[in-house]
Amino acid sequence: MFEPKRLHPISAVINFVKGLKDAAFPLIALVVLNGGLSGDAIDWIPLLVSSGLLLFILVGGIVKWLRFTYRIEEGELRIEYGLFVRKKRYIPIERIQSLDFSEGIFHRPFQLVKVSVETAGSSATEKAEAELTAIYKVEAQELEELIHQYKQADYSADEEEEEKEIESPRESVYEMRTKEIVLMAITSGGAGVVLSGVGVFFSQIMDALPLGAIYNEVVDWIQIGVLVVAFTALLILFTAYVISILLTLTRYANFRVSIHDEDLIITRGWLEKKQMTIPLKRIQGLRIDENLIRQPFGYASVTIISAGGGISQGAENQLRLLPFVKKENIPIIMEKILEDYSFDIEFETPPKRARLRYIIRQSWLFWLAVIPVSIFFFPLGLLSIVAALGATALGWLAYHDAGWNIREKQLTLRSRTLLRQTFIMKKYRIQSASKQQSILQKRIDLSSVRVALKSGAGGQFAECSFLKEEVVDHVLLWYRPEPLPTQPNE
Amino acid sequence: MGYEPARQISRRALTLWRISGVIQFGVSLLASIGLLVAVLLWEWPAWLLWIAGAVLVLELVFSVWLLPSLKWKRWRYEVSEHDIELQHGIFWITKTLVPMVRVQHVDTEQGPLLRKFRLSTISISTAATVHKIPALDEVEAEEVRQSISSLARVAEDDV
Predict the structure, then answer these.
(1) Cα–Cα distance, B32 to A106 (Å, whole number)
(2) Residue A116 and residue A145 share a domain
(3) Contacts of residue A436 in chain B, CB cutoff 8 Å?
(4) Do B35 and B55 sit in the same domain of this protein?
(5) Are residues A438 and B91 in contact, defined by beta-carbon separation less than 8 angstroms?
(6) CB atoms < 10 A from the CB of A245, how many?
(7) Which tens digits make up the pLDDT trace of A125-141?
(8) Are residues A362 and A345 in the same domain?
(9) Does one domain contain both A356 and A346?
(10) Are A370 and A427 members of one domain?
(11) Which of A431, A436, A442 lies nearest to residue B129, judging by beta carbons?
(12) CB nearest to A481's CB, from B2, B82, B93
């Protein structure tokens, strides 16, 4: 491992494809602009430019691969790379939190993996993370083992326990059943995302095509009837939904959580396999999400709030610990993973007088909009009242679902905007706590509490609004490192 | 809010905020003059002037006179051995508690205007959040920074 090593040659291909993806838009634009013109010399320029670009990306991909070496030396992972400017990145091994593996379609045939090196959530400017685009799985495991050994040696230098520490087997603690994955895919909000993707796609196409010619056709089309349009819309919607389901199915296939030493390991994926490692001691808290479709059926998801990783783990999906689970099963499953969090919690709720505030907060904008919308779009505009009623109902739900609990060192806050979110946190993991109160709230003795947790490179906030003031004071007092001698009279 | 943190920020902050209020007012005034010219020269609708006038008056009342003093009166902080407490806000009053164990680093910063007034702003960073105390006397700010950083160093760091 002390020799500088190259990545697998397939990295050049991956670099090329990635470069192609980044340059896709200008390339397509060039080709489209070039299309359908007569054979003047000038018309060849865009084609020349685009093929030049293509060549550049190809050569760039190969050179990038040639230049990239990695090795372990003097307790550091040393990476040297750079297309024009030679760069060296040395990461001290003790700062490496974990190696995450993923296998895309290029990796699978050759037994390769992509390795992402996660360091202790350093600040965004420091950017100490590194990526090995493709190395053999065996090498990756060797690397992991080496890092592991290095850390072990570091920890137990003065203790004589190295014999015992050698290898504890990976223990599987949770597996998702196929039925659950299917149900999750069907009830996910992902359909909306795909739909907006389709929308963007069409708007792009519209811009690229000669509009005048199409316009006439569109007018004809409209004359055929709204029915056709509605049908098409429905079809697109349905297709988007199906695509989203299929995507979720491939992404979450073979979902498994296991524990290895002090690390939590999540593996998932069918076409692209992913493995994430989360050191248990980096876990800052848990969040339970229930959306409006899943909640009535008693399903929820559990997400880990972790200090590790940072920028590259931005997509929250990656830290889903239990993506789709019957809520009543959470305590049993979590007992095997994180035993010091408790889940059977009796929530205390905001006072009755807070109800109106929740409703107003959630719906005032809608009610304000109802009047002008109803007047300007007279008959159809009245439908906005339905939307406002919906918002009102959500406000009532938000009141109904809000709650808090303190048990020993654990604070639990539950709130809802659209999702019902329950944050479960340990006192020693909370970064700061604040109490918020408007002048009007002071008069009727209400106030809100908000606490910050470290999450990736930034923070995540848990809130509970419109509680009794003494409750919020109580939470702050609980959070205060050294309790003041005077307790509040409850 | 019941119990309040003890210390207030520098009285000079008030003057500073008033001055920035006046600068803001000056910018709006210039814009209004431009508008007046436009109305006279190119016959823009005159009701624009009414709006501009209203904005000017409101700005004078709020950002020069009322808001700075309210803001100053409300700003309070306290640094004890175990935690830092901040309280601020005019309509929304926020009281924040940062345990000393959570503090990662403390910075002081000073813009040109602040320097003129011998004031300085303290930023207290935790792993997840940044909290600022604006416009402390620069000597006091330095003291606070030193004491926080020495107190925070004692506390063990496990994120």
Answers:
(1) 63
(2) yes
(3) 89, 92-95
(4) yes
(5) yes
(6) 19
(7) 444 478 888 888 888 88
(8) no
(9) no
(10) no
(11) A431
(12) B82
| A-B contacts (CB, under 8 Å) | 83
Q: Which of A434, A454, A455 is opposite residue B94, by nearest beta carbon?
A: A434
- Structural domain that includes position B65: 7-72
User: What pLDDT was estimated at residue A393?
Assistant: 93
Instruction: Give the distance from residue A399's alpha carbon to the nearest chain B alpha carbon, in angstroms.
Output: 20
In a domain, A484, yes or no: no
Average pLDDT over every residue of A54-82: 86
Contact residues, chain A, for B98 at CB < 8 Å? 431-432
Quote ipTM for the complex: 0.82
**Do residue A89 and residue A223 come from a single domain?**
no
CB B133 within 8 A of CB B78: no
By the CB < 8 Å criterion, does B129 face chain A?
yes
pLDDT tens digits, A51-65: 888 888 888 888 888
Containing A454, the helix (H) or strand (E) segment is strand A446-455
In this prediction, residue A237 has a pLDDT band, given cuts at 50, 70 and 90, of confident
List of chain A residues whose C-beta atoms are within 8 Å of the C-beta of residue B95: 434-436, 476
pTM: 0.76
Say which of A307, A434, A482 has its CB closest to residue B159. Answer: A307
Q: Are residues A143 and A205 in the same domain?
A: no
Is position B2 within any domain?
no
Domain that holds residue A241: 179-252
Nearest CA in chain A to B155: A481
B83 touches chain A (CB under 8 A): yes
- Say whether both A42 and A125 belong to one domain: yes
